[in-house]
Write a structure and sequence with these properties.
It is a single chain. With 336 residues, this protein is an alpha/beta fold. The protein folds into 2 domains: 258 residues, Luciferase-like domain (TIM Barrel, Alpha-Beta Barrel), CATH 3.20.20; 71 residues. It has 13 helices and 11 strands. Strands 1, 2, 3, 4, 5, 6, 7, 8, 9, 10 and 11 form an 11-stranded parallel beta sheet that branches. The longest helix has 23 residues. The chain is globular and about 65 Å long. GO terms for molecular function: oxidoreductase activity, acting on paired donors, with incorporation or reduction of molecular oxygen.
Length: 336
């Protein structure tokens, strides 16, 4: 199991720690570093900044939002950075949810998410493959565009720039069982938002068709500390926000996933508190047991024991959210 460093997206401003952390992770032998985006900083620009200050570590987006860019634009970003970094890019994509897609990007959330995702990946693959002009008779991403408001003179085009790698890895962030199953068929890897090494049966059926070499790369917050309850607070804060605020009360993929993992009643309670404006209560309502099983928190000996659980399952890459060099170093030592 390889280790990756997950930096996420910026809060109020850029973090001065991201480049030093990425450089330290590279020195420690981490295989990859990952950036993200929500509705603030983008995923590709910070990754390019990191690329210029590292030499070996792979560069992943976890995730770049599909609604933010047309699939050809995303492929342009990926192939450009892949050239500049010497072939280090891992392209992680995610559909996001209705509130973000419609509220921030101003476009309709696809009625058929599986079809929209499949078309998006198809176009990206065509651009990177550069075997012929990109063309797709698609419902969501038709190329050339032939809609009723078009001019009718669109032309299928092939990338001027030759991609460095036609097989640049494409990973998908997916949560629903059908979406995960499709990911195993059309992508090179899967980016679970949260993963429990003791509940791998939740995903087992969806991963039946995963080919050899398929990447399973979940994120996990990590903290080497003596006080487990205190160490779990950032995990609970993340869960409270995602389960309570990253989606509508009637359509929240994160809450649905928590329910499938055995915490349905708790997920709905967290949602109600968050949507009522009682955010601190929502965070405290996240069960310690759930926060603990999807993270690596506690003294070194405890983390060592729990790390063995992660190694026994299908996880190929553990993407660690750890904002301190000490935790990064301990995990590298334990995973060597």
């Amino acid at each position: 199991m390889r280790l990756g460093l997950a930096l996420g997206y910026w809060g109020r401003g850029p973090s001065a720690d991201h480049v030093p952390l990425a450089r330290e992770a590279e020195r420690l032998g981490y295989d990859s570093v990952w950036t993200a985006e929500s509705w603030g900083s983008d995923a590709f620009t910070p990754l390019t900044w990191i690329a210029a200050r590292t030499s070996r570590i792979k560069l992943g987006t976890a995730v770049a939002q599909m609604a933010a860019r047309s699939p050809t634009t995303t492929a342009m970003h990926a192939l450009t950075l892949d050239h500049l970094s010497g072939g280090r890019v891992l392209l992680g994509l995610g559909l996001s949810g209705p509130q973000v897609v419609e509220g921030w990007y101003g476009r309709p959330f696809p009625r058929s998410p599986l079809t929209a995702t499949r078309e998006y990946v198809d176009v990206v693959r065509q651009v990177l493959g550069r075997e012929a002009p990109v063309a797709l008779d698609g419902r969501f991403h038709p190329l050339p565009y032939d809609g009723p408001d078009g001019t009718g003179v669109g032309k299928a085009l092939k990338s001027i720039t030759h991609p460095l790698r036609a097989d640049l890895p494409v990973l998908l962030g997916a949560e629903g069982p059908k979406n995960i199953a499709q990911t195993a068929r059309i992508a090179d890897g899967w980016l679970p938002l949260y993963w429990s090494p003791t509940r791998s049966e939740v995903y087992e059926a969806s991963l039946t068709d995963a080919p050899e070499g398929f990447l399973v790369a979940p994120m996990a917050q990590a903290k080497v500390c003596d006080d487990i309850a205190e160490g779990l607070l950032p995990v609970k804060a993340m869960l409270g926000f995602y389960i309570g605020g990253m989606g509508h009360a009637k359509r929240n993929f994160h809450a649905d996933l928590m329910a499938r993992m055995g915490y349905g009643e708790e997920a709905r309670h967290i949602q109600r508190l968050f949507l009522d404006g009682r955010r601190e209560e929502a965070v405290l309502a996240v069960p310690d047991a759930f926060a603990d099983e999807i993270s690596l928190v506690g003294p070194r000996e405890r983390i060592a024991e729990r790390l063995e659980l992660w190694r026994k399952g299908p996880v190929t890459d553990l993407l660690v959210l750890a904002p301190d060099p000490h935790t990064l170093r301990v995990l590298a030592e334990l995973n060597s």
